[in-house]
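Q: ISL3 family transposase, please. Structure only.
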Amino acid sequence: MGLNQDWVIADVQLDVEKRTLTLPLEVVGDCVVCPESGAACSMKDHAAERSWRHLDAMQFQTILTAKVPRCSCETCGVKTIAAPWAEKHSRFTLLFEAFAIDVLPASQSIQSAALLLGIDWSTAQVIMKRAVARGLERRSLDQVSHVGIDEKSFGKGQDYLTVITDIDQSRVLDVTPDRTMESADALWKTLSRKQRRKVKAVCMDMSQAYETSTETNAPNALIVHDRFHISKYLNEAVDKVRRAEHRELQ
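A: Structure for ISL3 family transposase:
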């Protein structure tokens, strides 16, 4: 559930008609921790009661409720302490959001996942954005040595994105619209100047825009053209020569 030793379940309220299970929570003791300074301080009062959607229990929608205490910190002033089971401003517990992130990629669409979870489409989008933010906060870019830059078409194939990836760890670092040198320059800003100088090699197609951007932003990196595009251009060249010789022999 995500509770720590400072919180207890004060009651269990089951509503069979509405198929809900409500669990009021209470804090134990008078000493709390400031969410900003981390200092132990006294409790001043309680904020208004809030509720959080939790994982369903036996097909009953489970709701946590609590009046979260506010602390009186000598450094920061009066602050509402952090609820250990949820992110700040979220209406869902961390466990529910983790479950939602597992359901979303396993569903055919965001709408179908939202229907299974009992939430709306916009709420599913918000949960995804928070998950991405948590992932970016945990992400380390210190060991990025081999990078890939590539274009991706979407929609009906007339719109393009440029993607930068960490090849060694098989992860996307960032995405920008279009496939210009400016797009590639923006992607390189994902890495600091120090990190860009540690990049050993960059795999890309034969785009002059990507090559120029890489030479400017990662001057120590070796540029490697991917096998797919080399094979494509080689086959096109061979086919061009074949057609020319065929015309001469006729």
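A: Brief note, in case it's useful. The chain has a mean pLDDT of 91.
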